[in-house]
TrEMBL record, chains A, B:
Name used for this protein in its record: Sugar kinase
Species of the source: Phytohabitans houttuyneae
Family from the record: Belongs to the ROK (NagC/XylR) family.
Annotated transmembrane regions: none
Keyword annotations of the record: Kinase, Transferase
InterPro entries referenced in this protein's UniProt entry, alphabetically: ATPase_NBD, ROK, WH-like_DNA-bd_sf, WH_DNA-bd_sf
Entries under Gene3D superfamilies matching the protein: 3.30.420.40, Winged helix-like DNA-binding domain superfamily/Winged helix DNA-binding domain
Pfam families per UniProt: ROK
One Gene Ontology MF term: kinase activity
Length: 394, 394
């Protein structure tokens, strides 16, 4: 049961709306904020003063506008001063970044993730990154929280990738949160998200899907996963397990999957499927998969056939998702980006024969705009969400 | 970009929250409203007075409580006086009802839908229902709007069911809205929803899924569809076409489907599939399908085999949806209710082998609580949503 907001909540929502606007759109004049937020000038002035008092924004006269009259002051997020830590625990690498309010990556560190290393055991390595990054932080800077992107997949000691078991997120949250709080001397929440959701969030906030409220971001990180945005909000599911589209069965009795089932979509569009179809060693991973796409572009017939076959299955499963979700946009992430670009005709052909016209005709197929940074930018967004919900609470 | 609410919006939200509470929960004491809505006593008193002044609720002393002290006044929705019209355009029947605030069906009419009749041509028949129903309406009653549930399927002139083309909803909205406004002398919005969404909404508000925010309602009305609730809100998709799970392909190269594709889930769990599997005429429809389930319960071996086969495919596709959505509850509607009850072991077995443990272990499988009334109750909810969003606007 939703209850109505109090006076204090109204102010908090307005503060959050203003701060979110400059966080997403960058420096903005008071005049534009007045019209974009639907609040009057005196309210904008009071809110800005509160946010400036808390050190979250600054105000300054704009550069020469060339127009007569007193120019509207420009409100800027304190991007160098207010920051979050963002972490990305991927199948084969570990990354940490300091990200400023406004979404800029200010500094970052990365290293390989040793095969077989559980996510929880990555915490000491991430803690070293933080200690290192922290040395360059100005004394006046304000830490607002941390966000973590965790892959649902891990590379096992035998070099093969598999589901990490679904408990990594919880196993990381507590020790990494404790490290951050001890290192930074602040009790700040650490927000966890799976890698697909985080990448979708980043593309929705700052990338290809800005302004789209129904988005499927197909994610590849050893396995196939999706970050799904429904009506403007992330689909998380009841237990945070939503979006595991790679384990939609597309071929009954098909190849065995790492999840224990058979014929999962992942077994037909994963890197291993592409490599097998091209007659290559299936354990080569991302680089080997991209080499197949590259060989296809140079005319290698068996590589071309493999790319077409995987593209066909990519369109097959995607048609199902389009019928289920009626999205406005689909984004192909990871190696699926390259497969899609090389086999767009196969993908389109499957959509034309399998997806319902009314759901298909408006869908836009896109590749990511943010590249490798998406995980860090999205993880930082998880942390900034808390600040934006209640800017003056801390 | 979300902006903060004004004073007036705060009041509107509080009025909506109070009215929604008694609309869903029925007569409620002021004391309970105070604690449930998190507002103080004087605010509850003022809001109740406003709603009573608008004729939406009444207040009265409760029946004998047996406790000492002055009893808290009880706030009741004006269920006999404030009403919506609800319509249901199904494959084989047309229904209309007058539904009171609080969700009670006050009066209703129904008739067969002639085979081949497009939804738009049902409007004159529904208009007759309204004229008839209207004769019993007290002079003091207040009409607040109408809601329509439209099946995405229609029964063609040859007796077979197929997709109606996706434009029925728009083709009905305008003429039916005009009829209602002319008949009732009021400019009220007519809200359209597809039958699966509407049934899900009804079960979520007043049926099996009360309190569950992640729900898949599998709907059967000649075809297979789903009403899906994600994070407490209906999944509609970009163009209102979301939820068409019946056209998820589960068997590549399988049987031809009415949508033009092959091997859709609908071709394996539809009434026709059940009838074919039992060696019976596939065009028998709902009654014939239920007869197969009945025969299976009485020991008919071929009917038992057919039910097991369809139950197996029901679990197969559902496992995919559980991996994608991570729902808290799945509800089996229409003839899928009977198939599920007769083949729960097959469904469970498929979920155990195909659905990911972390998404499967908490999901509750249920049958609908509201029966035939779900379409009318859900359609009325569509209309009441407008009233609850802004109770005093009209």
């Amino acid at each position: 049961m939703r209850t109505g907001p109090s006076q204090e909540e109204v102010r908090r929502q307005n503060l959050g709306a203003l701060l979110r606007y400059v966080h997403i759109h960058g420096p903005t004049s008071r005049a534009e904020l007045t019209s974009e937020l639907g609040l009057n000038r005196s309210t904008i002035g009071a809110l800005t003063a509160d946010l400036a008092g808390a050190g979250l924004v600054t105000e300054a006269a704009p550069r020469e506008t060339g127009r007569a009259g007193r120019p509207s002051l420009v409100v800027r997020p304190e991007s160098e001063r207010v920051y979050a830590y963002a972490f990305s625990i991927e199948v084969d690498q570990l990354r940490a970044a300091r990200v400023g309010l406004g979404g800029e990556v200010l500094d970052h560190r990365a290293d390989d993730r040793p095969a077989g290393l559980p996510a929880a055991e990555a915490v000491p390595l991430l803690a070293e990154f933080v200690k290192d990054l922290q040395q360059a932080v100005p004394d006046t800077a304000v830490y607002v929280g941390g966000g973590v992107s965790v892959s649902r997949m891990m590379r096992r000691a035998d070099g093969k990738a598999g589901l990490s078991g679904g408990t990594d997120s919880a196993a990381v949250a507590e020790p990494l949160g404790a490290v951050l709080n001890a290192e930074l001397g602040a009790e700040r929440p650490l927000v966890m998200g799976n890698a697909a959701d985080v990448a979708a969030l980043a593309e929705h906030a700052r990338g290809a899907a800005v302004g789209c409220d129904n988005v499927i971001y197909l994610h590849r990180d050893a396995g196939v996963d999706a970050g799904i945005i429904v009506g403007g909000r992330r689909l998380t599911g009841y237990a945070g397990q939503g979006g595991q589209v790679g384990h939609m069965v597309v071929l009954p009795g098909g190849r065995p999957c790492s999840c224990g089932s058979r014929g999962c979509w992942e077994t037909e569009i994963g890197d291993r499927a592409l490599l097998n179809a091209a007659g290559r060693d299936g354990d080569g991973g991302r680089g080997a998969a991209l080499a197949v796409v590259d060989a296809a572009s140079r005319g290698d017939a068996s590589a071309q056939a493999a790319v077409r076959q995987v593209g066909d299955w990519l369109g097959f499963g995607l048609a199902n998702l389009i019928n289920i979700f009626d999205p406005e946009m689909v984004i192909f992430g990871g190696t699926l980006r390259d497969v899609y670009l090389a086999a767009a005709a196969q993908v389109r052909s499957r959509l034309n024969s399998m997806a319902l016209t009314a759901a298909r005709e408006h869908v836009r197929l896109r590749t990511p705009q943010l590249g490798e940074d998406a995980a860090l930018i999205g993880a930082a967004e998880l942390a900034f969400e808390r600040l934006l919900a209640d800017p003056l609470s801390s």
